[in-house]
Amino acid sequence: MSEDDMKAIAEKEYERRLSAFVADEKAKLPPERVPQGFFGNWGFHAHCRKMFDKRLAEDGIEVIRVVRPVDWPPQTGRIPR
Questions:
Q1: Is 62 helix (H, G, I), strand (E, B) or coil?
Q2: How far is it, in rounded angstroms, from Cα 24 to Cα 16?
Q3: In sequence order, what are the residues at sequence separation of 6 or more whose Cβ sits closer than 8 angstroms to the Cβ of residue 10?
Q4: How high is the pLDDT of residue 4?
Q5: Under 8 Å CB-to-CB from 25, ≥6 apart: which residues?
Q6: CA nearest 41: which of 31, 26, 28?
Q7: More confident residue, 20 or 7
Q8: DSSP β-bridge partners for residue 64
Q9: Where is 17: in which H helix or E strand?
Q10: How far apart are CA 11 and CA 15, in angstroms?
Q11: In 50-70, which positions are buried (b, 16+ CB within 10 angstroms) versus exposed (e)?
């Protein structure tokens, strides 16, 4: 697939689609396998994000991410207290 065939979606649209994808995947699970607690939900979400990114790549959809400049404090050469 060439780059001309690639579709693009904005980061907000990506997050919206990912949220719906995670909810659908969670609904497919039997009640005893639903992730519990912070680490269970975090791991499940990371796994779903990986599957979702793979599907987007297979469909030729690119995510446009906004790069925000980092506002670093000025360099003074002193160690802050």
A1: strand
A2: 13
A3: 63, 64
A4: 53
A5: 44, 48, 51
A6: 26
A7: 20
A8: 10
A9: helix 11-28
A10: 6
A11: eebeeebeeeebebeeeeeee
What angle (nearest 5°) sits at the alpha carbon of residue 70, between those of residues 13 and 66? 20
Q: How far apart are CA 46 and CA 32, in angstroms?
A: 20
Q: pTM of the predicted model, to two decimals?
A: 0.70
pLDDT at 1 over 50: no
Tokens for 52, please give them: 């979702």
Specify whether the CB–CB gap between 25 and 33 falls below 8 A: no
- pLDDT digit string, tens, across residues 18-64: 999 999 999 999 999 999 999 999 999 999 999 999 999 999 988 88
Contact 48, 14 (CB under 8 A): no
- Residue 2 buriedness (CB in 10 A; 0-12 / 13-18 / 19+): exposed
Report d(CA 28, CA 59) in Å as an integer: 22
